[in-house]
Amino acid sequence: MPTLLFLWTVTLAHCALAGHVCHKPPEVPFATVDIDKRVYDVGEEITYTCDPGYSHQSGSRKYTCPLSGKWPISKMRCIPKKCPYPEAMINGIVHVIDLNYQSLIHFSCEPGEERVSLESFWRLVN
């Protein structure tokens, strides 16, 4: 009788889990999921990673597909990295509005000076 009860419990658990899957997890701006597929099995774990130029600010990076088949709401947030302030230029002016990743800075000459290079804008990529 204990063997029959065990088999019945295993079968019931298997039936309860059958058909429960998680579909694609919610997208997180500026982040990717380590395992990208359409369907995930219950208990399968995923990890979000911030894209290059962005850093993890808050929220969990790891999530597990629950029995409900619905991913928990992701509170993970990736924010742009800050770049260092550019060095001072001789006879030049650096115009900085923002030092976030992919922001633009503008270089110009002091009055009476002439620009030597063709580029006066730089995109921050560090």
TrEMBL record:
Domain Sushi per the UniProt entry, residue ranges: 20-80
Paired cysteines (S-S): 22-65
Keyword terms: Disulfide bond, Glycoprotein, Repeat, Signal, Sushi
Superkingdom per UniProt: Eukaryota
A Pfam family it matches: Sushi
Coiled coil stretches, renumbered: none
SUPFAM superfamilies xref list: Complement control module/SCR domain (SSF57535)
Endpoints of the signal sequence: 1-18
Protein name: Beta-2-glycoprotein 1
